[in-house]
Design goal:
The complex is a heterodimer of chains A (about 600) and B (about 375).
Chain A lengths: L6 E8 L5 H10 L6 H5 L2 H11 L7 E7 L5 E7 L8 H9 L3 E7 L6 H12 L3 E7 L8 H12 L17 H11 L12 E10 L3 E10 L1 E2 L4 E4 L5 E10 L4 E4 L2 E2 L3 E6 L12 E4 L18 E7 L5 H14 L4 E7 L3 E8 L2 H13 L5 E3 L6 E5 L4 E4 L11 E16 L3 H10 L3 E9 L2 E9 H4 L3 H8 L5 E12 L1 E8 L2 E2 L5 E4 L3 H15 L7 E7 L2 E8 L15 H16 L1 E4 L2 E4 L14
Parallel strand pairs in A: 1-3, 1-4, 4-5
Antiparallel strand pairs in A: 2-3, 6-7, 6-14, 7-13, 8-12, 9-10, 9-14, 10-11, 10-13, 15-17, 15-18, 16-17, 19-20, 19-21, 21-23, 21-24, 22-23, 25-26, 25-27, 25-28, 28-29, 30-31
Chain B lengths: L1 E6 L18 H21 L5 E8 L7 H14 L2 E11 L6 H9 L4 E7 L3 H7 L5 H13 L5 E7 L6 H12 L5 E6 L7 H14 L10 H17 L3 E4 L2 E3 L6 H7 L4 E4 L4 E4 L2 E4 L4 H5 L6 E5 L2 H12 L6 E2 H8 L3 H14 L3 E3 L3 E4 L1 H5 L1 H5 L4
Parallel strand pairs in B: 1-2, 1-9, 2-3, 3-4, 4-5, 5-6
Antiparallel strand pairs in B: 6-8, 7-8, 10-11, 11-12, 13-15, 14-15
Helix pairs in contact in B: 1-2, 2-3, 6-8
Classes of the chains: A alpha+beta (about 600), B alpha/beta (about 375).
């Protein structure tokens, strides 16, 4: 039996670059992978088998064994948390799987925006938090100052905080001891009805869906029929186990208080939503754990294969990614300019970028991505309400009663010197001021309602640059608000290019149209003829630029010694054309379809 | 078959030059000439059944060699290769490196064509280019070549130079035309990577390529005006533009260079020299040290497939004003050009980039100005 008092479930929270990953690495290094009992059993053999099959787990969680100074053997479950606003919900579920958190603060930098945001998030989840002062090896380190700062600003005790260097390994033992003494052991009754929190899941082609969970009550073991309370999916438990460093370590059972994995005959991660509660179908718990939300995509864009012959490959790749990522959605669509592709839904822009990169790297696909947009609600005159994810599907203006766009409640934490510039930014993005509260003398929390449309592109970057990296930002969906929206069309050589259309606030349509034309003028190469680029709302042209015709493109010289080299130049020219999309008789580079994202650059 | 011999030495590297050439000491040049002769003798043995129609000794500056070296090289060519009667034998020469003795040695060694690199008659432009000579130096050299009895002289000129005006270019053309050379090569400046010009003017060139106004380089309009002026003025003086940048009086088109554009075989001797033999392209080492160690193994060997050769037929052949003959294509590849490039030819003709004369395909004046956009279509 596992002694619950010898388990510690925790995560590490920090501002970016304060040394979170380095500390995690040191902790794993200074501890063991297996308990002394496991070392004598068959576990290692199983692990070799796993290795042969090439199964590796993502480093979302790891179980390690620590022999403490009190002579006891402790089980540490270190749970990693994703660090981006797109995954706020995933972060909150990971935190809910922990009992405590280590707060890492840079001894030279002190408390920064994300330090606060993260520590408050941890405290919100009732986690016990103890601070660690890192990077004491830096010449600019001032640990005493930082200790006082932590006590003053956050209000947690920090006098005996371990002062360490994760880089050199100095005083890491202190951190391990603090985990034992300062963080609580889990509670929960192993004989109660099963109640386990899913904080992640992944699809493995050998094992099927692997569910990452924290057992809150009861015990789970192979042979049980488990029930996912929100999705209603049922499956027989095939295997349970722990997370080794890079391996799965099977075991007989996972009792209350433990963190581990479950495999069952499930083929799709859609059945195992993050935040859902797993229980025993034959002896269910009274109610699910609090906090479950179905996460819906907030940002949509079109993904098209650069080579239209790769359409089936793109579909296969998306299907495979979806096995592992329940929040990714896609459905087929066609574009006049881009051919066959998919309209895909993402949690946010980072999520979009991650998926795009995985498709390109892991599946070797060359993609054309259209401008991301949010879901608009179109109220038609006949009473019908459409969720609009693709601007091309906007009904004729005469059929539209009014439109709504999604708003978020945004909380921006910022030091007082930048309040002015951040308020300007929110104003520019059509933000509605709600409130401002000082949390201490020099730090305030600004609350704004902002259109989601205005923050999905580059709000985060703008925020960072206008606060010298100091502002932190979090948001949650508020709901839909009626808004004056129009569709901005782009005509290239007098032909509308559907993939370049986007929905825009009427008040900024002129400005956006003008910049879009300017941007496209830079992106579209010169052709043998002049190309007008126009922005239009309805039938009204609101901006125009012209790409001048090529006057001269010639190799003055090509003799015997040059032939191979000059041929390479021509081949490069030909390759360049291949990466373009033909619209009418104009070749448009793939990058141009993302132009709308860069409208604010170099402003 | 044609023969190309590379002399990779010059007095000083010009600021725009990306040729394989550099200044060197007498000892290095001497050792190079020994290796070159060894390669020449060795290669000649394998090509005894081939008749050499043209020889081109290029550089660098071949006339940097002393009289003995020049004579010995020319003698070796005559002795070891089988030269056709009336073979065209060209030597490139740089004004300022030619003496009465050298000019005579060339003529005596069988050279019947000399190509002089003038580039411009403006002293300012010559200095900017990093040339080692003045216009007067050129005039003296030109005189010496003529006195030695060379009846076929080419003058190299450059247009679209930084700061060059149409007026200054026109003056260069007039001054050169007054000498009545048989052949003129007039190139628009290419800003080549790895040259001082690239560092200085690349940004400006990018501006121009993007359709914007450059700062120092002539604008697109001026550049084109210079090109058109060259064609028009030279036509008045009886020169025909027979290739994008080459002009000749009747009967004086450079046979050697035409060979490059019509798929003739050629053997390259010397550092970095390229060859095209039996449908295979290859070149010598570009490392002087390796060459001086007599490493003559072919590099970058590339066998051309039938597709490659058909593409080259067009993208090299279309450089010539006459264009490419449909009958030649059929003769060489056993099928019609239309069967292979039907869609491309149709499209290019429809865009008025190409003219179908019935017997030939040739670039229109517009097609010639944007020839890269035409030529890549055949790849």
């Amino acid at each position: 039996m596992i002694d619950q008092s010898k388990i510690r479930n925790f995560c590490i929270v920090a501002h970016i670059d304060h040394g979170k990953s380095t500390l995690a690495d040191r902790i794993i290094e200074k501890t063991g992978l297996l308990t002394s009992r496991e070392m004598q059993s068959q576990v290692l053999d199983n692990m070799d088998l796993e290795r042969e099959r090439g199964i590796t787990i993502k480093s979302q969680a790891v179980r390690i064994i620590y022999n403490a100074q009190d002579g006891e053997e402790y089980i540490f479950n270190l749970i990693d948390t994703p660090g981006h606003v797109d995954f706020t919900y995933e972060v909150s579920r990971s935190l809910a799987a922990c009992d405590g958190a280590i707060l890492v603060v840079d001894a030279a930098q002190g408390i920064e925006a994300q330090t606060l945001a993260n520590v408050y998030l941890a405290l919100d989840h009732d986690l016990e938090v103890f601070p660690v002062i890192n990077k004491i090896d830096l010449p600019s380190a001032r640990p005493d100052f930082v200790v006082n700062e932590i006590e003053d600003v956050i209000g947690i005790e920090a006098q005996d905080a371990p002062r360490i260097s994760a880089k050199t390994g100095e005083n890491i033992e202190d951190v391990l001891e603090a985990i034992v003494h300062k963080l609580p052991a889990p509670t929960g009754d192993p004989s109660a009805p099963l109640q386990a929190l899913i904080f992640d899941s992944l699809y493995d082609s050998y094992k099927g869906v692997i569910v990452f969970c924290r057992i809150k009550e009861g015990t789970i073991k192979p042979g049980m029929t488990m029930l996912m309370m929100a999705t209603g999916a049922k499956a027989e438990v095939v295997e349970v186990g722990y997370f080794g460093a890079g391996q799965f370590i099977p075991c007989d059972e996972l009792p209350a208080g433990m963190v581990g994995y479950i495999t069952a005959s499930l083929k799709n991660v859609k059945d195992t939503r993050v935040g859902d509660t797993v229980t025993d179908a034959n002896r269910p718990c009274a109610e699910p754990l609090p906090g479950y939300k179905k996460v819906n995509p907030m940002v949509y864009c079109g993904l098209y294969p650069a080579d239209s012959a790769k359409y089936p490959d793109l579909r296969d790749a998306l299907e495979k990614l979806q096995l592992n990522d329940a929040s990714l959605q896609f459905e087929p669509e066609t574009s006049v300019a881009l051919g066959f592709g998919f309209r895909c839904g993402f949690l946010g822009l980072l999520h979009l970028e991650i998926i795009q990169e995985r498709l390109e790297r892991e599946y070797n696909l060359d993609l054309v991505t259209t401008a991301p947009g949010v879901i608009y609600k179109v109220h038609k005159t006949d009473g019908e309400v459409i969720d609009l994810t693709n601007p091309s599907n906007l009904p004729d203006p005469s059929e539209i009663e009014y439109m709504e766009e999604p708003f978020v409640c945004a909380e921006i934490m910022v030091t007082s010197e930048f309040i002015g510039s951040i308020m300007d930014l929110c104003q520019e993005r059509r933000g509605v001021y709600i409130s401002m509260e000082y949390i201490e003398e020099t730090r305030a929390v600004l609350k704004y309602d902002l259109p989601l449309n205005e923050i999905i592109y580059d709000f985060f970057d703008a925020l960072k640059s206008r606060s010298r990296g100091y502002a932190s930002f979090d948001y949650e969906m508020k709901g839909y608000v009626r808004s004056d929206l129009v569709k901005l069309d782009i005509l290239i050589n007098r032909e509308p290019v559907d993939a370049l259309s986007f929905i825009v606030f009427a008040g900024t349509a002129y400005e956006r149209g003008r910049r879009m034309c300017e941007r496209l003028k830079e992106e579209i190469p010169r052709h043998l003829f002049e190309i007008p680029i126009q922005a239009a709302v309805g039938s009204k042209i609101i901006a125009r630029e012209t790409v001048k015709a090529v006057r001269k493109d010639v190799l003055a010289k090509c003799y015997g010694g040059d032939i191979s080299r000059k041929k390479k130049l021509l081949e490069k020219q030909k390759e360049g054309k291949k990466r373009m999309r033909q619209v009418g008789n104009v070749e448009i580079p793939q990058e141009a379809f993302m132009s709308v994202l860069k409208l604010d650059e170099g402003k | 078959m044609e023969l190309y011999i590379h002399i990779p030495f010059c007095v000083r590297k010009c600021a725009y030059c990306d040729f394989l050439s550099a200044p060197a000491d007498q000892d290095t040049i001497g050792r190079y000439m020994e290796c070159l002769e060894k390669q020449l003798v060795g290669q000649a043995a394998s090509f005894q059944e081939k008749v050499i129609d043209t020889v081109f000794i290029g550089g660098g500056t071949p006339t940097i060699l002393c009289i003995e070296q020049l004579s010995r090289l020319l003698a070796a060519v005559q002795e070891h290769f089988v030269l056709a009667a009336g073979a065209e034998i060209t030597v490139e020469a740089n004004p300022g490196t030619i003496t009465t003795g050298k000019a005579r040695a060339l003529a005596q060694g069988g050279v019947n064509r000399v190509s002089l690199g003038l580039q411009s008659t403006s002293e300012r432009e010559l200095r900017l280019l990093g040339r080692i000579h003045t216009y007067d130096d050129f005039l003296r050299s030109y005189g010496l070549v003529r006195e030695a009895g060379i009846r076929n002289v080419n003058v190299d000129l450059m247009s679209a130079l930084p700061g060059q005006t149409i007026a200054s270019y026109e003056k260069t053309l007039h001054q050169v035309l007054s000498l009545h050379p048989e052949h003129i090569s007039a190139y628009s400046l290419i800003i080549e990577e790895g040259t001082p010009f690239y560092e200085r003017y690349r940004a400006d060139e990018k501006l121009r390529d993007a359709g914007k106004e450059p700062q120092v380089l002539p604008s697109e309009e001026s550049e084109r005006a210079m090109y058109e002026l060259t064609g028009a003025l030279l036509a008045d003086y009886g020169y025909e533009r027979y290739e994008i940048s080459n002009y000749a009086k009747a009967g004086f088109a450079c046979r050697h260079n035409i060979g490059y554009w019509t798929g003739e075989e050629y053997l390259g001797l010397g550092l970095g020299a390229s060859s095209y033999i039996e449908e295979t392209r290859f070149c010598n080492t570009s490392e002087l040290r390796a060459y001086l160690e007599e490493d003559f193994t072919p590099r970058e060997v590339q066998h051309l497939s039938k597709n490659d050769r058909m593409a080259e037929f067009f993208y090299l052949g279309l450089r010539m004003t006459a264009g490419v003959a449909k009958a030649d294509f059929v003769r060489r590849f056993g099928l019609s050009a239309e069967a292979v490039y039907g869609d491309v030819l149709k499209d290019l003709t429809a865009q008025e980039l190409l003219t179908d004369t019935g017997t030939h395909y040739r670039l229109t004046p517009f097609g010639r100005d944007v020839s890269n956009q035409v030529l890549y279509r055949f790849l």
